[in-house]
Automatic annotation (TrEMBL):
Name used for this protein in its record: Transporter substrate-binding domain-containing protein
Database matches in Gene3D superfamilies: Periplasmic binding protein-like II
Segments forming domain Solute-binding protein family 3/N-terminal: 24-249
Pfam families named in the record: SBP_bac_3 (PF00497)
Key words, A-Z: Signal
Keyword Kinase: no
InterPro entries referenced in this protein's UniProt entry, alphabetically: Solute-binding_3/MltF_N (IPR001638)
Source organism of the structure: Azospirillum doebereinerae
Lineage: Bacteria, Pseudomonadati, Pseudomonadota, Alphaproteobacteria, Rhodospirillales
Signal peptide limits: 1-22
Amino acid sequence: MRAVLMTTVFATLSLAALPAAADQLRMVALSFPPLIHDDGGKPTGIAYEIVTEAMRKAGHTVSVEIMPWARALDTVKEGGADAVFTAYKTPEREQFLNYSTEVLVPQVVSFFVAKDSPVAFDGDLAKLSAYRIGVVNQISYGSVIDDAIKAGVLPNVEKSNDSDSNVKKLLSGRFDVMPSNRYVAQYFLKQQGALDQVKELKPEAQTLPSYIAFTKARDTSKLKADFDAGVAAMKASGDYQRILDKHAR
């Protein structure tokens, strides 16, 4: 009996020493190279690597489905996914999303125009009111541009389903001005061999943080805490910066 008891205690202690079984998390994202995109059937990119590594540290595995942004937001809002990234923080989204405290990736948003375009920008958005503005449907460009569109300061807006389509429309002259994350604009222009056909207007429209955001359809506070702890550890160890540097090459 004593031998059986000792064996049971030993087995219990051994199991306690093992890491908890990994949770399989489902996340959704917009194809947003170089932050996240499909590479031969597998997701990759700056944000993807940061998210998966941060969650791995807490014993989670992550599957990410890339889809149009409007659908991604609806999916996480309804609880069909645990989280969405990369997301700017807006009051509307905070109604159904639980944002990370740690910044996922800081992003610079600028206006891009054709190389020979006469459009100029001095920081006054009202001076762009006569031009056609191309945006991606339900993408937030930060409070400066979002508020200008809502207030009618930028009244001539044409929407695309994704960043690739938006860049192609700019190159074909479908609209005059494209607000974009600098990383994203440069990636798609490079893919199309068109870096020399477009220029970035200065000054930048806004520099703002982007986050991972968890569904509020159920309690995801532990997942948020796990992510924050994982990213903080990555920043402290230098792993976070190494991922940024790798994709900048």
